[in-house]
């Protein structure tokens, strides 16, 4: 009997998860049902903002202005269109006055003002046919959204001689939240059936294909329940739900693929069901655990940033990754225990598969596609300098457009062109002088005389890049000035003006807010915390990969090659979404910049997923190296046994991300399509070309570690195989000179 069949190889965890498989699955079913109940309505409790740094000067200033001067911070705009008549027509003015008075009487509305009250030219379109009623809805995002839902239908549409449209920041965010929820449902309806078809193609067996899908659904529903609980204590972005779906399906399928494939291999090798599960958990199970930890660490790095938009992805990502791993390591073994060899049932590829005497579906990939990966690995290693050099140069070239990245803020142009709130904002941006709402507010706190205010206003007006200064509007011990910058409201000139306003001296305390000020503070907050985030990812990744491999060089290679795999994603993000190429095909509007937090988010997610595939490959290489001590054979063996699996997993995850990328909201589209590209590049280029080429170049030095670290790894590391042995010491070394070794020698000789 083979070693995998020996009873002592069945560990305590295997006995625990397979002792009462029916009870385990029934318990999981009950918990999942409770999670459905607990997670219901989670999207309604999420926000659609979170790009601002909450402890920044701009946020402090905004909060003070909201409290002391609510009219200075309108978030609700009614666009009054008078048709062919002038907005100054008596009938139009009377109707506008009635609407303004009615809006001022609504509960939760404050700071109501209009063109007809102030006669401000900034609130009247240049052609004289449109004007604005502005107000502020009180409360947080959730409360403001509820008030908007209540009052908007009563104002939207024809009203006497005018047509009313509803816009403003609160309407943009609320409409974005609604569209994201609708798009997420559509993405799930696309991804689930396509994923099932791909899984059937990978496994052949419909039974085996359903297992990864079940693990993914459990992970998604559980993560939604966790997010629902987190919303009780802090803000969570609605965008995080997209990551929950993508990672829930993607990673759960990755982990289940790895475990089910290894289980079927052990069955095909003659192990009984329990022994096969024991070997699977001891090998693939440990790999899944390491993979989950590396992905979770990459996502946990988002916690160092103050913006709740980024922190939300850490909440969602960590929850779904850990739940996916937990389901794969507990529920999946219980299901496999019940199924046993029946996991190969309902083989839908039987009609297409040529009959081979006794060849099982589990063995077929190793005999067919596996040989192809072996030949490919030998070819790459034979020309290792060429493949390593060309691939590296190609990836660097693909990333060059990112050198021209420009950072900005998300606005209404994230929405589809037909969205009402975007239409309103575009009318205001294009048809009104000075783009109302695009200015900067300078808050002055402390006692001051009119002469001091006048002097300060004159010095502001003299600054370069200032188009107009309005104010001061005075209150009880404070005042504010509205400064309209030249050019774009968040352009480089406006950002420089923010910095100059903040260093301008005055006999009172001053602070600045506005769109450009929020952008400056957000960029500063990210730049301040980014080294910490990168440090966490790199240090913990190095440690985890060292614990897995016992090598000093492999963890360094993993970090560098994973980062290199992301260059195509970052280059494409700038070339497509910033510069606007393919905007017609992908149906989005380019704003000429990239939202500041998106590259950080995409790096953490894509780096974690790259480590996921890296761990799959390295663990199998390390397992074989521990068994044989043959470096090149181990690389070939690892690619043979994981190349097809990693490619299949990457394609499935890419399908899920592309489904997310069909969203009508530009940031979600960018996130989905960008990460899909990164995943495919990592699996099909880095894992297939760079890793074997680099490992060939480093040779046996790949596994070197100084004596103290070797001792540390022997005590605390986790390995999937037996202790490393040289080929001469390995009693099974003759396997290297068997069919696989002969095939390798033949390819090398033929080369």
Please write out the topology.
Elements: H1 12-19, H2 21-39, H3 57-68, E1 76-81, H4 90-104, E2 109-114, H5 115-118, E3 130-137, H6 141-155, E4 157-159, E5 162-167, H7 169-203, H8 206-230, H9 240-268, H10 273-300, H11 308-339, H12 364-367, H13 369-382, H14 384-399, E6 407-408, H15 420-431, E7 440-445, H16 450-461, E8 466-474, E9 478-485, H17 492-503, E10 509-514, H18 515-549, H19 553-565, H20 567-578, H21 583-586, E11 594-595, H22 598-628, H23 631-661, H24 666-698, H25 707-716, H26 739-750
Parallel strand pairs: 6-11
Antiparallel strand pairs: 1-3, 1-5, 2-3, 4-5, 7-9, 7-10, 8-9
Helix pairs in contact: 1-10, 1-11, 2-8, 2-11, 6-7, 7-8, 7-9, 7-23, 8-9, 8-11, 9-10, 9-11, 9-23, 10-11, 10-18, 10-22, 13-23, 13-24, 13-26, 14-20, 14-24, 17-18, 18-19, 18-22, 19-22, 19-24, 20-24, 22-23, 22-24, 23-24
Please explain how this structure is put together.
The protein has 751 residues and is of the alpha+beta class. The protein is built from 26 helices and eleven strands. It has helices at 12-19, 21-39, 57-68, 90-104, 115-118, 141-155, 169-203, 206-230, 240-268, 273-300, 308-339, 364-367, 369-382, 384-399, 420-431, 450-461, 492-503, 515-549, 553-565, 567-578, 583-586, 598-628, 631-661, 666-698, 707-716, 739-750, and strands at residues 76-81, 109-114, 130-137, 157-159, 162-167, 407-408, 440-445, 466-474, 478-485, 509-514, 594-595. A five-stranded antiparallel beta sheet has the order 2-3-1-5-4, with helices on both faces. The longest helix is centred in the first third of the chain and has 35 residues, at 169-203. The chain starts with 11 loop residues before the first helix and ends with a helix.
